[in-house]
Design goal:
The complex is a heterodimer. The longest helix of chain A is centred in the first third of the chain and has 14 residues. Chain A is built from five helices and five strands. Chain A is about 40% helix and about 20% strand. In chain A, helix 4 links the parallel strand 4 and strand 5. Chain B is built from 28 helices and 29 strands. In chain B, the strands form seven sheets. A five-stranded antiparallel sheet of chain B has the order 2-1-5-4-3, with helices on both faces. In chain B, strands 9-8-12-11-10 form a five-stranded antiparallel sheet. A five-stranded antiparallel sheet of chain B has the order 14-13-17-16-15, sandwiched between helices. In chain B, a hairpin with a 5-residue loop joins strand 21 and strand 22. Chain B is elongated. Classes of the chains: A alpha/beta, B alpha+beta. The interface between A and B is medium-sized, with 27 and 31 residues.
């Protein structure tokens, strides 16, 4: 069975391009435009890996990370962000994220992070 | 004889007057004027004639002319009109006053009311005639014979002496009946006379003493007959000398004395003395000489003369002092003369004047010229207090203070002033306030005497009132002049400080007047005569045409003007001046311009520097924002880059599949292009935003400008978890302005709003950006946050440079924003929301006429072009 990856990003181009690439890698993928949409969906339980944007209107990526941990749902998370803010990466890693990638990232870096996440799962 | 008669008549109560040798009346006493109701001014010269009964006037004038021609005393009766219109008979008497050479220098006259006498004597005069009665009263031997040689009348002198009367042919004229009749009549006349008449024998013994003499001296006739005249009427200290002199005269028959009037002091039975005029005539008869003494109490006469002299003295003094004031003599000079005048007019006193400077209050510039400096020096600068001195009380209580004797006056026992006064030999001090016209106390006037002195006499009070009045004029004038000098100095200083010069120009005559400062601005020597050509030589060559135009307008239109022009100075430097000229016309309608010229060179330079500084500050603020925006920029660029790379990778994989997924690859390639364009747009916007260029005026759609800013800052706002809502009006008109600068302001407001909500966790961090039509022609943009808000008292401070509520802020953003909006003729303001947070808004007019200040002609031209385009229908 293919691993299920959920992508949460408010940027439409990411929601369009990233799932296509992940499907090329062989993952089952679903994209959400906000953390709230993801939490409200029925995909939370089957998600093996979460590719999560850091900065979003409303609930942010780290907010969702805290929310999942509080709910006892330890989904491995790969953060992606266009903000090259060096303080973000250690913070999210400290809270259990598998990786934090700065956009634009290479497909290799993405693939390595996903594999690491799936191993953690 | 006439002379003698005039003496008798002179003594009667009357109205007094004097005339110049040519008969021109130059003085009439108060009673004369009171009686006739004529004013002094009306009666002088020939005006007195209007008070004479018209029927009597020709004769009176005829008589007056003959008296003047004769140079001797004379008299006439005429009716004089009383103030109520009733005519009464008066005796007009005059006698000449001569100098040593016998030349007439003055005529003295007395008018005596003889109306009652005329009535009582009417019967007598009707019987004997006017001439006879006068002759009868003459103090000389007079006989009148009938043509047949009979004695018609023998006057009293003849009868008293008992001389045998002879006619011209030597016949005896003894006629008992006639004599008796004459004697009785003469005795009655003598007794009716108001003058004192006494006759004396050659040894000076009294042989007759009339009723008037009895009344005047308080002796009965029988008490003094046979006594020495000197012992009776002359005060004891003068008696011996008088007796000697009289004896000599009587013995020698000195005619220089006889018949002349001599002033002397006389004494009454009760010892009281009075001034008198004495004339002694010799009774020219054979045998031992005898004399008639006529004596008149001249107390009233002396008093009237004294009063006249006093009035003249005061008038002369007043005239002199007022002339000094009017001629601009210094206050010390005037006060000095004033003190000297009083000291001359009221001997045995010292005077002081002490002006008060109420800013202290202290006595300042006081003086007492006849007292030593040791007296006045300690008073200088002394505080004006009640306990200071009598002058202090006078000034404070606005009342005259009389210290009769400072040695014994208990009020001053404890005062150091007492010792000071006594040490200078002074005892009495009278201090009087000097009032201004409005009743303010300007100082005090002091009279000191070296002996105790009771209250001032009416005459002294008059004098004090007069000199304090003059002193007040002098002090007020000096104060006025000082104030004027100060005011002029202030004006000159104000002109210097503000670099404003003033001028007047009479257009018709080219009469030009400049203030000192204007000479300084133009750098002309004040000695150089001003001409239009000279002034024109300073005008900057490029401004000469407009200056010439201005002068033409001024000469032809007579309107007010205001303009700027430049001056080119000899060293080549350029000055900017602003001038305002106001046209006025004098009473004759002649045109005169009054105006001011301000040197605005420094202001112009400051404005330019300010504009430059503002532009630089805006640049700094942009740089600051740039730092803040780096992450946002990176985000904006990285997002499409990320899309490009992802799509490209996907595309490659789809093409490499077997079979290749061409449709998928095409779709990803399309997305790659889209994201590439998106990145390119970001760069374009950034370049527009951060390119350093001067303000440019163009048509700006605020909605579009706001959208672009939102696009650039969206990621930053998202990172701050800000929920942005836009409420952009659909029908928003375009505005003219600098697009980049306005976007700078919008960006600043957004970032500020975002920062204001950074600590908010209990409510959505909602930010609303709204555009709408404002009041009138304005377009408004507001940014509403739900942040910490702003206290009403902090609203104004928000816009001050370097005021900030943020730990990392510099407080420049809003200050710069406001200056940008100001330069768009708009308004930027903040207000607390009803709920949480604050709203910051700006409004700018649709057509503000371009961006002002340092942005120069280019911007204005752009704006003008834009306006022209607008007018012609092009958007």
């Amino acid at each position: 069975m293919r691993s299920f990856v959920s992508v949460v990003d408010d940027d439409e181009s990411v929601r369009e391009s990233l799932p296509d690439l992940l499907r090329e890698f062989g993952f089952a993928v679903r994209a959400f435009s906000s953390a709230e949409e993801f939490l409200a969906s029925d995909c939370v339980g089957q998600t093996s890996c979460l590719v999560l944007d850091v900065a979003m209107p409303g609930m942010t990526g780290p907010d969702l990370q805290r929310e999942l941990r509080r709910g006892g749902r330890e989904i491995p998370i790969v953060f992606i962000t266009a903000h090259r803010d060096e303080t973000v990466r250690p913070r999210v890693l400290e809270h259990g994220a598998v990786e934090c990638l700065f956009k634009p990232f290479s497909e290799t870096a993405l693939l390595e992070a996903l594999n690491a996440a799936l191993r953690a799962a | 004889m006439e002379n003698e008669l005039s003496h008798v008549v002179d003594a009667l109560p009357g109205l007094v007057w004097t005339a110049l040798p040519d008969g021109h009346v130059d003085f009439l006493n108060g009673r004369w004027c009171e009686y006739t109701g004529l004013g002094v001014g009306d009666a002088y010269g020939h005006g007195w004639q209007t008070a004479i009964h018209p029927e009597d006037l020709p004769e009176l004038l005829e008589r007056w002319r003959s008296i003047l021609a004769s140079g001797e005393s004379g008299e006439i009766e005429a009716r004089l009109r009383r103030f109520d219109g009733e005519y009464r008979w008066f005796l007009f008497r005059t006698c000449p006053l001569t100098d040593a050479s016998g030349q007439v220098v003055k005529w003295c006259g007395v008018n005596t009311d003889v109306d009652d006498r005329r009535r009582t004597d009417e019967a007598l005069r009707a019987r004997e005639g006017r001439f006879r009665s006068i002759v009868d009263a003459l103090p000389a031997l007079v006989t009148i014979m009938t043509p047949t040689g009979e004695l018609e009348l023998a006057n009293r002198q003849v009868l008293m002496r008992g001389f045998p009367l002879r006619d011209t042919e030597g016949r005896s004229a003894q006629n008992d009946a006639a004599l008796k009749r004459s004697e009785a009549r003469e005795a009655a006349i003598l007794d009716a006379a108001l003058d004192c008449v006494a006759t004396i024998d050659h040894e000076g013994r009294i042989t007759e003493f009339n009723a008037a003499a009895e009344r005047t001296f308080g002796y009965r006739r029988d008490e003094v007959i046979g006594e020495q005249l000197a012992d009776v009427i002359v005060p004891p200290p003068l008696r011996e000398e008088y007796r000697r002199t009289l004896g000599r005269y009587l013995a020698a028959g000195d005619t220089r004395v006889l018949g002349r009037r001599v002033e002397m002091m006389a004494v009454r039975a009760d010892g009281s003395e009075f001034p008198a005029e004495l004339a002694i005539t010799r009774i020219a008869l054979d045998g031992p000489p005898s004399f008639t003494a006529y004596l008149r109490d001249i107390t009233e006469h002396k008093r009237s003369i004294d009063e006249r002299e006093w009035a003249e003295t005061r008038l002369a003094g007043e005239k002199q002092l007022l002339e000094m004031i009017a001629s601009g003599r210094s206050l010390p000079d005037v006060l000095n003369a004033l003190c000297s005048f009083v000291e001359r007019a009221a001997p045995d006193c010292h005077c002081g004047v002490y002006p008060i400077d109420w800013s202290g209050p202290t006595f300042q510039n006081g003086m007492a010229p006849s007292l030593p400096a040791s007296y006045t020096a300690p008073i200088e600068g002394l505080p004006v207090r009640c306990e200071t001195a009598p002058c202090g009380i006078a000034a404070h209580l606005k009342t005259q203070v009389i210290v009769e004797d400072i040695e014994s006056d208990p009020r001053w026992h404890a005062s150091p002033y007492r010792a000071h006064v006594l040490a200078h030999g002074l005892r009495s001090v009278w201090s009087t306030p000097i009032y201004s016209l409005e009743g303010r106390v300007l100082g005090t006037f002091c009279i000191y005497q070296r002996k105790p002195a009771t209250n001032p006499s009416p005459r002294q009070q008059d004098l004090i009132a007069q000199v304090t009045h003059i002193a007040s004029i002098a002090i007020e004038r000096a104060m006025g002049e000082a104030a004027l000098r100060r005011s002029e100095a202030f004006l000159a200083e104000a002109q210097r400080l503000s670099s404003i010069g003033s001028f007047s120009w009479r257009a018709g005559t080219d009469d030009i007047t400049w203030s000192e400062q204007l000479y300084r601005i133009y750098e002309f020597d004040q000695a150089v005569p001003l001409t239009r050509e000279l002034i024109g030589s300073r005008v900057h060559p490029e401004d000469i045409p407009s200056a010439d135009e201005w002068i033409d307008w001024a000469l032809n239109d007579g309107r007010d003007f205001e303009d700027d022009y430049r001056l080119q100075m000899p060293d080549g430097s350029v000055k900017h001046v602003h001038f305002v000229a106001h046209a006025t016309r004098d009473r004759d309608g002649r045109l005169e311009y009054i105006g001011a010229v301000q040197d605005v060179t420094e202001r112009r330079h400051s404005e330019e520097a300010l504009g430059k500084a503002r532009a630089e500050l805006a640049q700094v603020a942009r740089a600051m924002s740039l730092g803040v925006l780096t992450a946002s920029i990176a985000h904006e660029v990285n997002q499409p880059l990320s899309g490009i790379i992802t799509n490209a990778s996907t595309c490659l994989r789809m093409l490499a599949a077997d079979p290749p997924n061409v449709n998928g690859a095409r779709e990803t390639a399309r997305r790659t292009i889209r994201d590439g364009n998106r990145a390119s747009d970001v760069i374009t916007r950034l370049r527009a935003l951060f390119a350093k260029k001067g303000a440019a005026t163009e048509w700006v759609d605020l909605n579009e400008a706001a959208r672009e800013v939102i696009a650039l800052s969206r990621s930053d706002l998202q990172r701050s978890r800000v929920i942005l809502r836009t409420e952009l009006a659909d029908d928003l008109p375009l505005v003219t302005g600098d697009r980049v600068q306005l976007q700078q302001v919008i960006l600043n407001l957004l970032l500020n709003a975002s920062d204001a909500m950074s600590g908010v966790d209990d409510r959505p961090r909602q930010l609303v950006i709204r555009t709408e039509r404002g009041e009138g022609d304005d377009v408004r943009l507001s940014v509403r946050d739900a942040g910490v808000g702003v206290a009403p008292e902090g609203v104004d401070k928000l816009f001050e440079a370097f005021y900030t509520t943020k730990s990392g802020g510099m407080g420049i953003g809003l200050s710069v924003s406001r200056s940008i909006i100001d330069s768009h003729h708009g308004r930027l303001w903040a207000a607390p929301n009803d709920g949480p947070g604050a709203t910051v808004s700006f409004s700018i007019p649709r057509r503000p006429g371009g961006v002002t200040a340092a942005h120069g002609l280019g911007a204005i031209r752009t704006c003008a072009a834009a306006n022209a385009a607008h007018v012609t229908g092009s958007p």
